[in-house]
Design goal:
By secondary structure, the chain is of the alpha+beta class. The protein contains eleven helices and 20 strands. The protein is elongated. The chain binds flavin-adenine dinucleotide (FAD). Flavin-adenine dinucleotide (FAD) binds next to helix 1, strand 2, helix 5 and helix 11.
């Protein structure tokens, strides 16, 4: 077996790994090696934002993140935030713009173009990329790291674990990074899929497949609202998808259920008044037709059925019940589509096991970045910003260590 010496080995050529390597290189660190199991780097990055690459958000703030230690997240974002990222990517020749909700995209609206900006930069900076190489294990021996892949053994002074979590494993992040971290003595918090579609009772969404509405959806736990989000709700053949659902999925717990307000801009009274007006003009109007001009007809049909099932006499459905259903349609949750469909992993290596520079507190010069750590963000560019920010902060710390020892 060939043995190679490097100053820094980065396991994982995803968003965090390639950005970290690039930042190391621009700070003058040499002999950087990225080991990536896929045939090319940044496969997941290239698929983000429905292929459009929502890399960050104008409203970047720690309040859009979940972690066991938000102070460290805040500190990382303060040292390399949204503006730093944009300056850096603009220097590489990219142009970026944001939409009305603050989501930042490349003006090409192609996530692959962000991967390409970084890929070409790595090439120019002389970073070594070994793709199609899977890391089997890594350990520290005699003050240096030994990294064993299916093809070779590598030695390095610093090691960065950038393997991602276990969401969307078809992109290479299948959770094996947790085993690498555990082998260095780290623990892993409970892991859950997040930013994922929600499965519901089929009869509660019958006839709604393909309908997309802008509504307000609340997550309820023991009758109390845990969180409410206004946004895109998409009915699918298994349940619910869309932006609002993705955002709520980050909070899901067993036993929770959903309540949808299909017309958040109108009060129950206003809706009931519109229905009463219709009924005055047409006293024999049926429940379904009362929704005409108010809400999508398939949703109206579903609401009428829902109220009929609730009332003693299904033939006499009260307008108050119909208006209430529009504002409070209750949906039973039957889980999520899981890690395979999730965009991110909730949980990971707890931040109290790393220092402010994301270096392991128990293994000197071992760093962890990106989704492997117990940090996840809301939908809207927060997760990629974390991947880039954590990569940049670690790069600075490693460069500092290397220069200190020269
Ligand atoms: C479909 C989809 C859309 C998304 N859209 C957005 C979005 O628009 N905005 C946003 O902010 N976030 C988005 N995300 C989330 C975001 O992509 C991730 O949070 C981010 O990519 C995490 O970066 P990472 O470097 O930690 O991990 P990853 O990007 O998962 O990279 C980890 C890399 O490590 C490699 N690897 C793992 N184990 C090994 C090993 N043993 N040996 C060698 N290589 C290994 C993997 O192959 C992979 O390439 C999306 C996610 C998905 C799945």
């Amino acid at each position: 077996m060939v043995v190679n010496e490097h100053s820094v080995v980065i396991i994982g050529g995803g968003a965090s790994g390639i950005f970290c390597a690039f930042q190391l290189a621009v700070q003058g660190v040499q002999d950087i090696l990225i080991l990536e199991r896929n045939e090319r780097v940044g496969r997941k990055l290239s698929a983000t934002g429905n292929g459009q690459g929502n890399i960050s958000n104008e409203n970047m703030s720690v309040k859009h993140f979940f972690s066991s230690d938000l102070k460290t997240v805040e500190s990382v974002l303060a040292r390399f935030g949204k503006n730093d990222l944009l300056v850096c990517l603009r220097r590489l020749g990219g142009l970026f713009s944001s939409d009305s909700s603050g989501r930042i995209y490349p003006t090409s609206k192609q996530a692959t173009s962000v991967t390409d900006l970084l890929r070409f930069a790595l090439h120019r900076e002389g970073v070594t990329l070994h793709t199609g190489e899977y890391v089997r294990f890594a350990k520290k021996e005699n003050h240096r790291f030994v990294v064993q892949t299916d093809k070779a053994t590598y030695h390095s002074r610093c090691l960065v674990l950038a393997t991602g979590g276990k969401a969307a494993p078809h992109f290479g992040s299948d959770g094996n990074g947790y085993i690498l971290a555990k082998n260095f003595g780290h623990t892993i918090t409970e892991l859950r899929p997040s930013l994922v579609q929600i499965k519901t009772l089929p009869e509660e969404i019958k006839g709604l497949k393909g309908i997309r509405v802008e509504g307000r959806v609340s997550l309820l736990r023991r009758g109390k609202c845990v969180v409410a989000v206004t946004g895109d709700i998409l009915f699918t053949d298994f349940g619910l998808s869309g932006d609002a659902i993705f955002r709520l999925s980050a909070f899901l717990q067993e036993g929770d259920y959903l309540s949808i307000d299909f017309l958040p801009a109108f009060s129950m009274e206003e809706i009931a008044n519109a229905m009463h007006a219709k009924q005055r003009l047409d006293p024999d109007i049926n429940a379904e037709d009362l929704f005409r001009g108010i809400i999508n007809s398939s949703i109206g049909k579903c609401m009428a059925k829902y109220c009929a099932n609730k009332q003693k006499n299904p033939k006499v459905v009260s307008i108050e019940c119909l208006a209430y259903a529009i504002k409070n349609y209750s949906i039973t949750i039957r889980g999520t589509l899981g890690f395979v469909s999730a965009q991110v992993t909730k949980g990971g290596v707890p931040l109290f096991e790393v220092d402010n520079n994301l270096m392991s507190k128990s293994v000197d010069r071992l760093f962890m970045i990106g989704e492997l750590l117990d940090v996840d963000g809301e939908c809207g560019g927060y997760n990629l910003q974390w991947a880039f920010s954590s990569g940049a902060v670690v790069a600075k710390a490693i460069a500092g260590r290397i220069y200190e020892n020269r």
